[in-house]
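Entry type: protein chain
Record version: 2
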Amino acid sequence: MRLAGSNGHEQATKLSQQLGRPVTTGSVSTKFLTGFGAAVKDVSVGPAAGEGLPLAQIKRADVRIGLLRTAFSRGKDVPVHSVEVDGLNVNVIRFDDGTTNLERLQKKLAEANPPEKKPAEDKKQSDLSYLRVDHAALRDARIALVDRTTKSPKELAIQHLDVTMDDLRAGKSLDVVITAAVLADQKNFDLRLHTAPLPPTLAATPERITLKVQPIDLAPLAPFVPKDVGLEAGRFDANLDARLGAAVPGGNGATTVQGALRATGLKFAGAEGGKSLDVVLDTDIKGDADKGNLEIAKLRFDIGPAGITGQGRASALNTQTPRIEGLEVRSHDLDPARLAAYYPPLTKQLGGQVAGPIGLLLHAAGTQAAQALELRVDFTPVKLAFPQSMTKAAGAPMTFVAHVKGAEKNKLAFDANFDLAGVDLRPGGSLAKAPGQRLELSAKGIRTASGTTADPQQRIDLENLALHVIDDHVDAHGWLETKGAGDQATKKFDLLVSSERLDLDRMLLPSTNKKEEEKPPPDPKTFAGISGHASVKLANVVYKKQQFQNVVADVTMKDDEIDVQTASIQGLGGRIDAGGTRLKLAHPNEPWHIATKISGIDLEKAAAMGSPKKVLAGKFDGNVVLDGRSQDFSDLTKSLTGGIDGNVTGGKFYGKDIIASAAAPVVGALPGALRGTIPKGGETDLGKDLPFGFTVKDGWARLKAPVKLATPQADMSFSGGVRLDGNLDMPGTVALTPATVQQLTGGRVKLTTNVPVGLRLVGAATNPTVTDVDAKGAIEAVVKAAGSSLVSGLFGGAGGQQQQAQQKAQSQAQQAADKAKDEAANKLKGLFGR
């Protein structure tokens, strides 16, 4: 039963508008009785203006789907019985400006659908295990290549193109066959691919590849190769059979690679002296990963003047007694800069970053009784220059050496050493490692592999992982384990990291305080499926001229979320504990939590780590609990909430002598006869014990209650708080004690109570400004008291004469006080603003 449909024509009309070229279809039909299917005939994507030839034409496309199974499984099982396309014709046209019709189509689609800039999201690999395709085929397709850049347009063709694909489904091997006649009447290209069982993502891992290509002249194809490649001429042929077997994850059986690939006489625009490049791979290799056997009868890989050669055999590599007979794989003249003379685009790709021959050698190592394979890669002759990363001069040492030998079944013991002594990492702006200083990474352990392609498993047991940096070193041991594929893939770890001493001042470059370019957060997919545990134990650490001891941390990780179970550090005269901290590495806008307990920290030492200016002194005990939603400071000030509670003993504030700042306007407004000295120490005594608490919200750390402190010079009280940018805004009162008033008046005034001065501290905590000074009440009290004291001192007799004199003195004192108040009102605004 067949039903004619008109919906295909409607879709063709919409597609025409999107592509900017006519799209037409012939008949469209569906069928149900023999299984749901749809067929369309005579599909055409016509030419855009000025192109003349249609982009593509299809004689017939037929699809059959198991509709009932799809419906009953609610899309969890989608069987596609067949997809067949007959008579596909594609015209690729190259115009005078060097572009093709395909490039023009891609440009139009990009303009019509610009990519949206979205923040990184958690996107796991697609699980396509619900999809099954029994058979797919492209039959007798033709790709015409039309070059209109010449006076007489030439037409080339890749024709009789057939592609078949059978049994596409998770857990099964996939077979793909591609045959074609490339620039010929008869077929001269044959590629056959057999994969290992597919994982849920349906990502194919080739297990067997057979490629047979009769010699093809590449010169006619050159105009259609991207211009930046610059291909002008060459020939290509191949006769290669590669059975990878157990050498690939999930594969089974022996491994053989036999035959050759040849791309000869390759010429590229701009090649030095018109040099041509030959690329040849000629091999005869046999191996068995299960038995640990490898035989290289022939290995030749030539790239112009460079190459890799190999020969020899090895057996029982995955046992404790491997046998190696003359096995050697060696490179020669592998200099990227030299190859750029043959292939000029390589010059741009290298950007002058790599020059000099790279040495590679794989051979036997050890004694006859204890043999192993040794891989040595030598970058010593190579010059490296990676901007804002690293540099290395030619001749400076840089080597990688690794050894592999059998342990037990499915296990390989390994050790590796990466020596970077010749590298200069200072251009990276982080590590102060100069050429000649030690930088070495070494590892030793056992790798165990098992499972299938659908469920691969690997475990690496690290006996030791050591990092040597300049004069310090870090050791680690533990294990890493990977299981599964696609969305089911997991990566677990357990590591213990330790060091006796780390001098970070010597190891790290000083901060330049330059505003760095904002970098996007890491991709969440990087952390998908990761879980594990790490412990850190550092005996001694030097950082910003301070000594720290017993740095201990215990951290768990799940995906990108870090959970600090315990963390402690001794230093700065006390101890800091940060257990309970949580954050997400790839989600800067997700909530995070910091919980820190501080005991006996020397504030002067702590402040010195962040600023050369002295700010505070004393011992601090307290708790810091903060929550936020951003790692960007401008956003952080809006989202940060929490609290800080603590106590300072024996504290001093170096930013301002607050008592002198309060006393100065009082002395400045007194009559000359009453002026004494202002007590100046350049700092403020915070008393023996100063408890305080802050509430953090809306970019502020506000005092929960006014802080009050008593000193012999004054009793002080402040409210307000500190902005998260480090600026103070703290109104308060400084009540000068009688002893201070006596000193301010040169001993002429003696009071029995404190006199208050109001003020406000604003600005940077390192040197705040004193504003809004209100000393009128203090001035009046001092002047009035001065009158009483003056009378008592000048007249000691009794009777009317004394009383009359006292009244006169008090009147004079009142006049002086009134005058002083008026003068003070005019002077206070400008006095001691800082």
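Comment: Residues 55 and 227 are 21 Å apart (CA to CA).
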